[in-house]
Each structure stands twice: as structure tokens, then as C-alpha cells.
Fold this sequence. Notes:
Blueprint: E1 8-11, E2 17-20, E3 24-28, E4 33-37, E5 43-49, H1 52-86, H2 94-133, E6 135-141, E7 146-152, H3 156-173
Antiparallel strand pairs: 1-2, 2-3, 3-4, 5-6, 6-7
Helix pairs in contact: 1-2
Amino acid sequence: MSNDAVLAEFDIRGGDRLTLYANRVVQQGADAMETIPLAQLASVRVAFLREPARLAWSIGLLVVALVVAIITGPLQRGIAASVAKYGDPARPESLDALLLAIFNFFGAFASLLPALAAALAAGGVALFVYYWLGGTTLTLAFAATERAWAVRGRDRALVQFAEAIGDRLAARTG
């Protein structure tokens, strides 16, 4: 078999491509190219992983969203009652006017809390979706370093590409 025969290919994000030849792996992109001789390769690993940190952040954002949503109603009612108490035009004292301005400010802030709770919940759901999708990572290990390529989700094509590299390494050493 010729060294220029393509044994396997895999397209990565953004137009990059991994190509396996008989004696090397080539990563080609729009701006760069890298050739990795199989003789320098120590091992090949492919794994599907989910990041626990994304799940933790997702749960945290959803809990904060729930807390914000729960306190919104009572906070708005309490501020409205305070505004009604100090908003009586028969009491024009300066302290009352200052308190009225402060309560109006907090009332405006409290009216934004439902939107904040919705945004936090949407962020939490998005992080959970990214956690659930996970990612497939191909890692090529050398004596002193390693190179990794990751794609979102469970990608059978990347697993097959890694198997082709592993088969080629086994054929070289066997």
C-alpha cells in the first residue's frame, strides 16, 4: 500500500480535517497543517465525556432562578404597600419623600426579577443540554505530549477514525 493512500478521514469543526495515511496523521485547516508521524505516536484514546461542572452550574442556576421567582411576588407586594404608606400627598416630609423614592427604586428592581429568573432558568437549561450532549474526544499521545480533538455529542465517526489509527499502530508494531 502506498504511503499516500488515505486510510480514513474525519472532518472537525470549522473545516479542519484529520486524515490517516499509512505512516502519518495529518491535520489540515484553513490556516495551518500539522503532520504527525505514526512512529512517534505512543497511544490513541477516544472517549465520550460529560462535564460534571456543567451539571453543577445548571443545577445552581436553576436553584437561583427558583429562589428569585419565589421572592418576586412577596417583594413586589411589600414594596407596593410601603409606597402606598409613604405616598400619601398629605405627608410631604422630606424623609417620607426620600423613602418613597427608595421604595419606587426597589419596586422597579423587583419588577425586573421575573425576567431575571427566566434568564437564569434558560441558562440553567442550556447548560444542562450541553452537559447531556457531552463530547467525544480523540487524544493522540506521544512520549512527552499529547494532542486532542473534541466534537460535541457522541460521534461514531470519530470513534471509527480512532479505531483506524489504532489498527494502523497495531499493524506497525505487529
